[in-house]
Amino acid sequence: MSKIKSVRTRVWNWKGKTVPPTGNFCANASDALYDRGDAMHSFRFHQWLTCEIETEDGTIGIGNAALAPNLVKAAIDEYYAPMVIGEDPFDYAYLWEKMYRRTHAWGRKGIGMTAISAVDIAIWDLMGKLTGKPVFKLLGGRTKEKIPVYYSKLYAASVEEMQAEAEEAMKNGYQGYKTRFGYGPKDGMKGMRENLKRVEAVREVVGYDVDLMLECYMGWNLDYTKRMLPKLEKYEPRWLEEPVIADDIHGYAELNKGPIPISGGEHEFSLMGFRQLLDAKAVSVIQYDTNRVGGITAAQKINALAEAHQVPVIPHAGQMHNYHLTMANVNCPISEYFPVFDVEVGNELFYYIFEGDPDAVDGFLDLDDNKPGLGIEISDKYISEFEVTE
Ligand SMILES: [Mg+2]
């Protein structure tokens, strides 16, 4: 069997045109500070990391990560790459444990686990390419004819702008729509009314025959969310996402006792992290992101645990690593889908780095049974718009 020969990491810094977010674009955790600055300042990211793992026979597996790419790159280069070089990629579970246990003191969450994720995703892509099978086949195969997706954008703007965006998105017949709140605790009653006005306006356009998801991006707190929940109930949201910061498991658990399902997990890590969320009944929908949570190896374990608890898993973000898991798991009913768009928050950046991500057609997307691995390649189409560091 071909052994791992090299690990190449690159950070892609977007230098092209960006759309500056305006006004109360999206509530976020920094809103609690006295210097709020521009709405998404601390959460906008215009960088991405790619991790290419090559075996002796020249096959290359591609992984990626979007959190703090410069730090994740250093962690891989210095710690994780030497642990996998010379190893057999099919020993993926052993390699995962090796990376996890040898850096446990600092790597079990955050930067370390994000780096493990990027390496693990590349290893799965490699296994697919070496066996000539798509990753979802290695994970157990197709559980759906196509993957239903929900449209994820609708950042807070004027009512008219949001309604126009929803109307435009409706043309593609999505299975659901997710909108972001622009106001939080510091905006008081007036901000509450602004939030509610926008939910009502979006519901007015999309109607009540499709799901509507509401995103707080950790910009609220327990008290504020408790006040908002009864006011939101009549709009029948599918879920309320990340109302409080990721560490406040007790807050999630308290809110999740109410009539609106609470979702979260895109800022949680590993099987053990999700065991804590499930034990506390903190979330009704799990939203890990495969390129943070510990890669496909960890995600698949969380899927099993979540299935036993009958809590659906709907991974954060589009992207192939999430789609393959969704395709192979009956407990993953739908995928998040970021529409192809000019670079704004940074969620869109992967469309400019990779080729092969499927477009949603009439609210569904499909994976190719005959494309080995994840089905993406690094593209040079927009390379002149990036500054790439190795
Ligand atoms: Mg989210």
UniProtKB/TrEMBL annotation:
The Mandelate racemase/muconate lactonizing enzyme C-terminal domain sits at 159-261
Q: Which cofactor does it need?
A: Mg(2+)
Q: Does the keyword Metal-binding apply?
A: yes
The protein's matches in SMART domains, at most eight in alphabetical order, are given as:
MR_MLE
Q: Which InterPro entries match?
A: Enolase-like_C_sf, Enolase-like_N, Enolase_C-like, L-lyxonate_dehydratase, L-Rhamnon_dehydrat, Mandelate_racemase_C, Mandelate_racemase_N_dom, RHMD-like
Q: Which Pfam family, any one of them, does this sequence belong to?
A: MR_MLE_C
The record's listing under PANTHER family reads: ENOLASE SUPERFAMILY, MANDELATE RACEMASE, MITOCHONDRIAL ENOLASE SUPERFAMILY MEMBER 1
Output this protein's name: L-rhamnonate dehydratase
Q: Which organism is it from?
A: Sulfitobacter pacificus
